[in-house]
């Protein structure tokens, strides 16, 4: 059964769990709650990690 997973985190430390759910076909939504998240060096790394997990970066809040 497909699950809807909401991830609310300060960082992507739970990335392996998110990837596991994505691979299982679950719908994963991500909300990153961190100050300075769009700082270019950090944001670029986050986008790379999310793409590698199969999460569409355009859907990040």
- Provide the structure class: alpha+beta
How would you state the average pLDDT, rounded? 82
What's the overall geometry? elongated
How many strands?
2
Bin the helical content. 25-40%
What does this structure look like?
This protein has helices at 15-23, 40-53, and strands at 4-9, 27-32. By secondary structure, it is an alpha+beta fold. The protein has one domain. Strands 1-2 form a two-stranded parallel ribbon. It starts with a strand and ends in an 8-residue tail after the last helix. InterPro entries: LmbE-like_dom_sf (IPR024078). This is Secreted protein. It comes from Candidatus Thiomargarita nelsonii.
Topology:
Blueprint: E1 4-9, H1 15-23, E2 27-32, H2 40-53
Parallel strand pairs: 1-2
Question: What's the short version?
Answer:
By secondary structure, the protein is an alpha+beta fold. The chain is 38% helix and 20% strand. It has one domain.
């Amino acid at each position: 059964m497909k699950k809807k997973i909401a991830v609310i985190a300060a960082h992507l430390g739970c990335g392996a769990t998110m990837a596991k759910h994505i691979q299982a076909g679950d719908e994963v939504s991500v909300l990153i709650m961190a100050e300075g998240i769009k700082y270019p060096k950090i944001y670029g790394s986050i986008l790379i990690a999310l793409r590698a997990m199969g999460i569409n970066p355009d859907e990040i809040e």
